[in-house]
Structure formats: structure tokens, C-alpha cells
Automatic annotation (TrEMBL):
Organism: Rhizosphaericola mali
Top-rank taxon: Bacteria
Molecular function GO labels: N-carbamoylputrescine amidase activity
CDD domains, alphabetized: nitrilase (cd07197)
Single GO BP term: putrescine biosynthetic process from arginine
Protein name: Carbon-nitrogen hydrolase family protein
The keyword Hydrolase is annotated on this UniProt entry: yes
Coiled coil: none
Alphabetized UniProt keyword annotations: Hydrolase
Xref: PANTHER family: BETA-UREIDOPROPIONASE (PTHR43674:SF2), NITRILASE C965.09-RELATED (PTHR43674)
Start and end residues of each CN hydrolase domain: 1-235
Length: 246
């Protein structure tokens, strides 16, 4: 399986502009014949909790139809982040587009303390069955710090763990260590897709990464450049491409 993680510099609250940038990243991933591309936490809005209620939507939002079209036509899974709503509740969510399938919403189950009171807690664990050999568990940022989340992924037979995050320059090294330990403990290939630039008052750290199932770092993007990191799980090779679509 060819897995891409995207490292982006978000446009604060500007969903149409972020959609445009996402489409360009997806085009590059398609040219690489990727099977999946995963973007950072709340990638379509930036990590902006104070705007979340205003920007929240649902997986059926017509603005997102373009992603389903790209998924269907290019046989690629696309996972991007946006706040979603149900009644008066707002969630930190990942919308997952699969070729010719109903789109899925995965909502963050373990909130960072500052998110409590703004967002509601998701209650539906999710794994994506790509084929018999690749079962993917998505994680959203702070979830990687809760051992219960990765343990549950393993109990659901996941062997690939993809964390969609906003990680700041002050927190990234600690989370890199945690993700390496998750890979080693659960014998999973682990990915992290992070921002560069600024979002939500944080200076974002980049360093989007992939680890093998022994917890060894395979490859990593830098701390200041937008780009794609792709890993071929079958043939064990990576490819990095620097991008600037802003």
C-alpha cells in the first residue's frame, strides 16, 4: 500500500482556499499512484477552536463533493479534517472519502484539556480495511497521548496507525517519541501528518514522519516546507516531494 501524508500551511478559517490547496496535494499523490492521502488535524479550516462552531458542517456538505469525485476517479482514499456538527454539538472530525463508497466521519474521542467545553467527544472507533494485509486506524492529535486509543486500534487488528495532528515546536519531539513507542509496542507502521506555519496561536513544527513496526524512524519531512511524504508498505521505500501551493 502506498500511503501519503500531507504537510500543509493552513489558511485560517478559509474552507474554499484550503479545498483548493488540498486538491493540488491530492493531484500530486495521484501522480505518485498513492492509495491514501491523510491531511493534518482540521486541515480544511486550520486548527481554530474559536471559529469551529461557525465553520462546522457535515460529511454531506456539497463543497466536499469534489473530494469524492477525486476519490472515485483516481481510486484513492482521502482523509481531511474539518469541524462537524450534530444538533448543538461540535466535533473535531476527519472526513474519509473512499472510492465509490459512502463517506465516513471519524470524530476525536480523546480531547486535549483546552478543547473540552468547545468540542464534544466522539464515541465511534474506526478502522479502514484497505485489504487483508492493511488495516488502518486513524488518530487525531491528542489521541496518540492516550494509550487506550492505540490499544483499541490494535484490538481491532489495525497494523497501520495514522495520526492527523497539529503539533507545535514545543510539543513535537515528545509526540514523536510517543508515536515511535506506539509503533514498537503494537508492531504497527505509524504515520504523523502535521502543519507548518501558524495555526490556533501555535507555531507548528512540521516533521511529518513515518516509523516502521519496530519504532524506527523511516523518513521525515522538514520543519518549514509544505510537502508530501509517501511510504510504500510492500516495497519499503519512501518518496518526499516539497510543495508550495499557497
Amino acid at each position: 500500500m502506498k500511503i501519503c501524508i500531507a504537510q500543509t500551511n493552513p489558511h485560517k478559517g478559509n474552507i474554499p482556499k484550503n479545498i483548493k490547496v488540498h486538491k493540488q496535494f491530492i493531484q500530486t499523490a495521484t501522480e505518485l499512484q498513492a492509495d491514501i492521502i491523510v491531511f493534518p488535524e482540521l486541515s480544511l479550516t486550520g486548527y481554530e477552536p474559536e471559529l469551529a462552531k461557525e465553520l462546522a458542517t457535515t460529511q454531506s456538505d456539497e463543497r466536499l463533493d469534489e473530494f469524492q469525485y477525486l476519490s472515485n476517479n483516481n481510486k484513492i482514499i482521502i482523509a481531511c479534517g474539518i469541524p462537524t456538527k450534530k444538533g448543538n454539538e461540535v466535533f473535531i472530525s476527519m472526513i474519509i472519502f473512499q472510492p465509490n463508497k459512502e463517506r465516513l466521519t471519524y470524530s476525536k474521542q480523546h480531547l486535549y484539556p483546552s478543547e473540552i467545553g468547545i468540542f464534544s467527544i466522539g464515541n465511534a472507533p474506526l478502522v479502514i480495511h484497505f485489504d487483508k494485509e492493511c488495516i488502518i486506524a486513524p488518530a487525531i492529535c491528542y489521541e496518540l497521548s492516550n494509550p487506550e486509543h492505540s490499544q483499541n486500534a490494535k484490538l481491532n487488528h489495525a497494523n497501520i496507525y495514522i495520526a492527523s495532528v497539529l503539533n507545535s515546536v514545543n510539543g513535537v519531539d515528545d509526540d514523536i517519541n510517543k508515536l515511535s513507542n506506539i509503533a514498537k509496542k503494537h508492531n504497527m507502521t505509524v504515520f504523523m501528518a502535521n502543519y507548518i506555519g501558524n495555526s490556533g496561536g501555535y507555531v507548528c513544527a512540521g516533521k511529518s514522519s513515518v516509523w516502521d513496526d519496530n519504532g524506527t524512524l523511516i523518513d521525515q519531512l522538514d520543519s518549514h516546507t509544505e510537502g508530501i511524504l509517501m511510504y510504500d508498505t510492500k516495497n519499503k521505500w519512501t518518496k518526499k516531494i516539497n510543495l508550495n501551493y499557497n
